[in-house]
Amino acid sequence: MNPEDLQFKPEEAKPVTGRAHYWKFVTAFLTIVVVVFVALWGLARYERYTGEQQVKRLADAARQAEKDDYAASMTDTYGGKTPKETIQLYISALEKRDFTLATQYFIGDSATRASMSLRGTPDARLIEIIADLKKALSEQEQCDAKMTECSFNYPISIDLKLYPNGIWKLGI
Predict the structure, then answer these.
(1) Per-residue pLDDT, 120
(2) Looking at the DSSP assignment, which residues form a beta bridge with residue 157?
(3) Which of 10, 54, 121, 166 has the greatest CB tally within 10 Å of its CB?
(4) pLDDT tens, 71-96?
(5) What mean pLDDT is reported for the chain?
(6) Closest Cα partner for 94 from 136, 129, 120, 139?
């Protein structure tokens, strides 16, 4: 073979036509579009997955809180066997000025709010509250169909809820 045959000869190079440029551009453009589409699809899947995981963690936390509340309510012994008995126990505690005991007749977090409001109540107002509670006891309670929630609405509004262990608690 002759060394001249291996040399590059410009007259033999094929000129790039407009058609070849067009197809290279189209191929590059479509490749970019596909890559962007796949990336956006992957990002959407990732966000959906992380959202589902967050919802699952929240649901698990809610179930655990519900179990904890149930366990706490099963061990709670403060309350009466009937709505009226619970109100009578509450009145008795107020008459003795035993606000710690009085707040034990309330549902969960309501006890904290009740404790704060009772401790600052003047004696004259406390006597009025006790009188209103006694008047409410003379009225007929209104209960839901399942007999799990009852209320007295005159002269003050009193809501009660039946705990799973069979005792009635006051609500605010």
Answers:
(1) 80
(2) none
(3) 121
(4) 888 888 999 999 999 999 999 999 99
(5) 88
(6) 129
Instruction: Measure the CA–CA gap between 81 and 79, rounded to whole angstroms.
Output: 7
Encoded tokens for 120: 């600052």
Q: Which amino acid is at 116?
A: M
Q: Check whether 30 has a pLDDT greater than 90.
A: yes
Model's pTM, two decimal places?
Answer: 0.64
Q: What is the pLDDT of residue 18?
A: 78
The candidate with the shortest Cα–Cα distance to 76, out of 169, 171, 172, is 169
Which string of b and e fits 119-144 if b means at least 16 CB within 10 Å?
Answer: eeeeeeeeeeeeeebeebbeeebeee
The two structure tokens encoding residue 87? 């109100």
Q: What percent of the chain has pLDDT over 90?
A: 63
CA 127 to chain centre: 39
pLDDT of residue 72: 83
